[in-house]
Amino acid sequence: MADPNSSNGGVVLTKSGFRRFRECARKFSYQVRGYPEAQREGTPGAEEVEGLARALFAGGRWVEALEGESAAVATARMLAQAGDVTLFEATFVHGGLLCRADVVRRMGKVVDLFEIKSSSIDSREGTEGVFRAGRDAIRLEWRRDLEDLAFQTLVLRRALGCEVRPHIVCVDLAGKCDGLTLHSTLRWSELPEGSGRRRARHPGPESSVRDSRMLVSVPAQREVDELLGGDEGVEAVVGRLFGDIRSGALYSLPPPVSGACKDCEFRNAPHATPTTDGFAECWGPEISSGYLCDMYRASSLGRRDGASNLEDLYGRGVRKLVDIPLDAIQSSRGAGQRQSKQLAQALSGQPWLQPALREQLDALAWPLHFLDFEAARAPVPYYAGMQPYQLLVFQFSCHIVACDAPDGLSHRGWLQTGGDWPLVEFLTQLRDALGSEGSVLCWSPYERVALESALYELEERGDKPELVSWLRTVVGEDGEGRIVDLQRLCLEHYIHPAMRGSTSIKSVLPAIWRDDAAMRAHPWFAAHVQTRDGELLSPYDTLPQPTLTGVEPVRDGLGAVHAYQHVLHTEEREEPSRTSERRSLLESYCRLDTLAMVMVWWHWRARLASP
After folding, report:
1. pLDDT at 9
2. Taking the alpha carbons of 513, 514, 516, 520 in that order, is the dihedral positive or negative?
3. Those residues with Cβ within 8 angstroms of residue 591's Cβ, 6 or more apart along the chain or in another chain
4. Backbone angles phi, psi at 496, to 5 degrees
5. Which of 1, 94, 121, 169 is most exposed, with minimal Cβ within 10 Å?
6. Cis before 285? omega within 30
7. Element spanning 153, H or E
8. What is the pLDDT of residue 407?
9. 598: closest CA among 505, 521, 518?
10. Closest C-alpha among 365, 440, 363 to residue 608
11. Widest CA span of the chain, in angstroms?
């Protein structure tokens, strides 16, 4: 949107743009120049919180532009109407700044601004000073949300020239929620067409949301004024940013180098060209051996005197991981030991597999159960009896290895997409899959944490003693149960240069898949061998693509949560084809996660058995 009052070279700064600038000035400059970037999923549950929160504002209206009107002009027209006015998604533009406010309420000459967040507080501990920590400082976990609110307050004060009172509307953990009623009555619409954004609306009555006390509005005037003022406040930073835009200095600011660079959204962005590759502009063309930022825990690099840290090395021109000097690694530390091995394997181009791993693999109890969960912590609970952000496991996959024979691999899975709170159903199905014997292998501590949470919930209910007894044998005490963390074994015993410092299963599997022709030929895994343009694909690149419009692929845990939420929405239950496809995508994704663990186990075992 162009702003006739702006003299900033046509650049309009939005709330999201300002947030990105605060995160990384170089990424903001790439955004301004229109460089391609990988799309990121939104926060699960945020749209549901917005839909419920707007139900608290009786008489609120969506801003709707007349033919030929911009959203900002429509907002001004609707705010100018007589009497008190409450608007949803009102747009304000002034001096190169633009924001779209969640809720704006004008009462006389005063405007209240409400920013809806899926963050949470517990009102049982009081709301006074909830945004502040020791020594009266703004809490770090709230700072970004409050800066968003401060930016919007600045825009509204400039655009309207009146008193603007800022508030945060967020989830209240003290609320009593009949989750099934609140969540299932939300109505959805795509908005606008092709944007991928959706609008949630609670049809009322407003009292059902208000009585649940699931949401709370907290004044944030003091925090916003603090964040706006001073040399490093939002207003001063915005002024300097526009100065850098006008002078062209924005495009030559040094990057704030950190370990987070490895996951930059401008890295391997679709449709990037040599002249529009933001990551390459910071780090140079793609390097097969990996970049400096691909080092395991790269931000911990550096001698004890602070020299040779990540920023120092970058400033000295080090870009390749293989060029990291040995004195930049404190090999006496745990992280340093793995960093030293990663550097050695990057230089040799060969994987490292510690022989001591064989003893731990041989100690596993048969049958082996490779287990993975998909779970959500929803701010708006799906089922009656649940609390906001209470963990809900909605899917599991379990590959069971009984022996090495071709028929020694089987699979059990479960996916819950309706009905009542599925805690007992989940644990009953899981007990049937895991039985009472054999090791349970997971990738990360997540499954253990989820089962410990389920055990606590089951004990609180005071029923199903047989499930409680069985679950205690699985989780054990002090690590003495049946669960084995394969990611921990990977961290302690295995490095492949192609993993680039990551121990995610989605980094480990592609690395070994390309190396192990015998594994690819094994009847358990051969169906996943596919090529594209003559290149061998990772099994994760062969996951099925959706065939129906509006159905997104499921490629990671966040995508799985989004697919699950879609399936639960009342209106989409009336579209059985979409629901069926999403279920299929969920099952394919979770099933591959556990088969991937079987592949890694098979590869390690075969390599350790070789002379």
Report:
1. 63
2. positive
3. 397, 399, 411, 413
4. -125, 135
5. 1
6. no
7. helix 140-160
8. 87
9. 505
10. 363
11. 86
Question: Which pair of tokens denotes residue 45?
Answer: 């549950």
> Does some domain include residue 241?
no
Between the CA of residue 51 and those of 108, 120, 297, what are the distances in Å? 26, 16, 39
Among residues 486, 505, 522, which one ends one of the domains? Answer: 486
Encoded tokens for 254? 């040094």
CA gap 172, 3 in Å, rounded: 38
Domain assignment of residue 413, given as a range:
358-486
For 116, phi then psi, to 5°, come to -90, 125
Same domain, 51 and 162: yes
Same domain, yes or no: 301 and 212:
no
Which domain-ending residue is among 297, 324, 348? 348
Same-domain status, 394 and 500? no
In a domain, 379, yes or no: yes
CA atoms within 13 A on the CB side of 137: 6
Successive 10-residue mean pLDDT values, the chain, 611 residues: 51 94 95 92 81 88 94 96 95 96 96 96 90 92 96 97 97 73 63 55 67 87 96 96 94 91 94 95 90 94 80 94 93 89 95 96 97 93 83 96 89 88 94 97 96 93 93 88 97 96 96 96 95 95 92 93 81 73 96 98 94 65
The phi, psi pair for 243, rounded to 5°, reads -60, -40
- Residues 473, 502, single domain; the answer is no
Domain-located, residue 21: no
Q: Could you tell me the two tokens for 341? A: 């091995």
Those residues whose C-beta lies under 8 Å from the C-beta of residue 504, and which sit 6 or more positions away, are none
Q: What pTM was computed for the model?
A: 0.91
Kindly write down the DSSP assignment for every residue of 9-36, as one continuous string: TT--B-HHHHHHHHH-HHHHHHHHTT--
